[in-house]
Design goal:
This protein is of the alpha/beta class. The protein has nine helices and 16 strands. Strand 1, helix 1 and strand 2 form a beta-alpha-beta unit. The longest helix is centred in the last third of the chain and has 20 residues.
């Protein structure tokens, strides 16, 4: 049965949700609400029914789902009020700015028997799905390091994302995605340490970039990095294994993976390098490695919404589990703690 949905927050992310929902036959968009009258006028001009208040949304008995796409600090009370009014809820990330607030949401969801799911949409990114396949299929041997770097050169947008109280900054904006994906990829390994460094080169009250280093008990190291004043980008993904290396340069999926033929140190010949020479860093001969195109992965972020409907109807498990979201929030807390103390946070056995 088709579900009726109202979007709360007619901004950049909200309008993107509406574009995607046009492809989801299981959901009808019944309307939009935003506290900004100008955004409501724009929604009307774009052909959407609008509500005069959030209470009017909650009192509409025809509405099954509320989709929250507001600044982060409003998520908690919007979600709780919606579930108490009998609505199921999809919420933008980060779901809340503390584990305590998220637990309060989960308590209400349980008490009122409502489905609540966080939009961790970048699990559906094709580049991430390619990394998963290469790692899980063992195409480059035992992976020992994964680097995920997202670089930009436009700073932080001139909106609430520059402010601390509503939950601005790059950790809440981007690390919540990168971290969620790595923790899903390494779900069979135990996280053993967390180190976080935050940058404030633009002198906002929130971080404009970060580097996070995670270690796991299977000897894997993950480096997650975001910069907003980087005019030459690093590769978005760089994954190193014992018999190969994978690189994805950008969202457009330029890249490859290279695998070893034969022995690692066979027939090493010294080469001149700068003011000296080296055997260790000598380039490989052409026949000692093979170059491979990145695999193609069929992925559709609209499956997130379809799964949510199926979860409501009892025919599927949630694609994004709230226990996974809670673990991500707990690790984010460790990242902030590590950055404040300038030390590695070691997890207890």
């Amino acid at each position: 049965m088709t579900k009726e949905l109202v979007l709360i927050g007619y901004g950049g992310m909200g309008t993107r949700h509406l574009q995607r929902l046009e492809k989801v036959s299981e959901i009808d968009v019944a309307g939009v609400f935003d506290i900004d009258p100008n955004k409501l006028k724009q929604a009307q001009a774009d052909g959407y029914k609008t509500y005069t208040s959030y209470m009017a949304v909650l009192e509409d008995s025809n509405i099954d789902i509320v989709l929250i796409a507001t600044p982060n600090d409003a998520h908690k009370w919007l979600a709780i009020d919606a579930m108490k009014a009998g609505k199921h809820v999809i919420c933008e990330k980060p779901v809340t700015l503390s584990t305590k607030d998220f637990q309060e949401i989960l308590d209400v969801a349980k008490a009122y028997h409502r489905c609540f799911m966080v939009d961790q949409n970048r699990r559906w990114d094709e580049n991430y799905q390619i990394v998963k396949k290469i790692v899980n299929d063992g195409l480059i041997g035992k992976v020992y390091e994964i680097r995920n770097v997202v670089d930009g050169s436009r700073g932080i947008p001139k909106d609430w994302r520059r402010e601390k109280e509503p939950g601005g900054g790059m950790v809440y904006d981007w690390c919540v995605h990168l971290l969620d994906r790595i923790l899903m990829l390494k779900h069979d390994a135990k996280l053993t340490s967390v180190y976080g460094h935050l940058s404030y080169v633009l002198h906002h009250e929130v971080d404009d970039g970060f580097q996070v280093i995670l270690t796991f008990d299977d000897d894997t190291r993950a480096v997650l990095e975001v910069g907003t004043v980087n005019f030459i980008k690093l590769p978005e993904w760089y994954v190193a294994g014992t018999t190969g290396t994978m690189e994805i340069k950008d969202f457009e999926l330029h890249g490859e993976y290279v695998t070893l033929n034969g022995e690692l140190a066979k027939d090493t010949v010294p080469v001149e390098a700068g003011a000296g020479f080296t055997k260790t860093m000598a380039p490989r001969t052409d026949d000692s490695v093979s170059h491979h195109a990145l695999p193609s992965i069929d992925t559709d972020v609209c499956d997130f919404y379809r799964n949510f409907v199926n979860w409501i109807d009892g025919s599927a498990e949630p694609a994004v589990k709230n226990s996974e979201v809670m673990w991500t929030l707990k690790v984010i807390d460790m990242i902030f703690k590590s950055a404040n103390l300038n030390q590695v946070i070691n997890l207890e056995n």
